[in-house]
Amino acid sequence: MSRSTDAANDHGFPAGDFMIVSAGCWRVFDVKKCSTSDGSEIILFPSKERSLDQQSRDPWNNNQVFSIDEHGLLVSKASGYPIDIQDAGLVLRHPRSGISLPTASYLPETQEIRIHTSVGQGHTYILTYTPKRNPRLFFENGISALLPLNDPFAASGAWDGSSTTSTLATDGADLDDSDDSLDWNRTPKLVEISHQRERDAGVSEKERLRRTWFIVPIQSA
Question: pTM for the full model?
Fold first, then answer.
């Protein structure tokens, strides 16, 4: 058994290449715009491939394929570079001497992905993503209407009509955590968790679903 296979087993991921699929929005891990630059953003995007057979896949879409290396780092197949934490999100990182990169683990029993750092006392994060709510107009009579993504009101976040008759809402604490936007992109984010109390009873069912991930192996010859 190779060191990479050992590392994958130790961290809960399958050996070899795989895709990471969100159970909350059915989008996959994706290096934005197929970039290989340092600091390139990791997003959630619809899968660009139907096949899981490596031989029949377009190599251009390897920005949606990842693996675990012998150190437990999550690595993009397209560039060969590992994933790092930046501003509570994930980015592509060009390794540099003296820089400690986070490791990843997958918990099959809960289908959660954990990201672990060794900086200072070390921290553990759970992977989720930010829901994106479709813009709505709310009227005094209780009726609401969805706005298309290209609507000027949705784009500007403002409504020129009388505030006594209608209100535009795209996001806010008074709204539920719906994730019904037709926008293709979602943004992964990390939430720090406590080793003493990993399960927060206040987490909604929708948020629990956003913390659920499927690891889909890519079949090689």
Answer: 0.80
The token duo for 27 is 């989008």
Beta-sheet strands, E only, within 71-162: 74-76, 83-86, 89-92, 103-107, 112-117, 123-130, 136-139, 144-146
Q: List, by residue range, all CATH 2.80.10.50 domains of the chain.
A: 3-131+183-217
Question: How many other CB atoms are found less than 10 A from the CB of residue 182?
Answer: 9
Distance of alpha carbon 92 from alpha carbon 85, whole angstroms: 9
Domain 3-131+183-217 has CATH 3.60.150.10: no
pLDDT in tens, the chain (221 residues): 454 555 556 799 999 999 999 999 999 999 999 999 999 999 999 999 999 999 999 999 999 999 999 999 999 999 999 999 999 999 999 999 888 999 999 999 999 999 999 877 789 999 999 999 887 666 666 565 555 555 444 444 444 444 444 444 444 434 457 898 989 999 999 999 864 355 556 788 999 999 999 999 999 86
Q: Strand 144-146 relative to strand 187-192: parallel, antiparallel, unpaired? A: unpaired
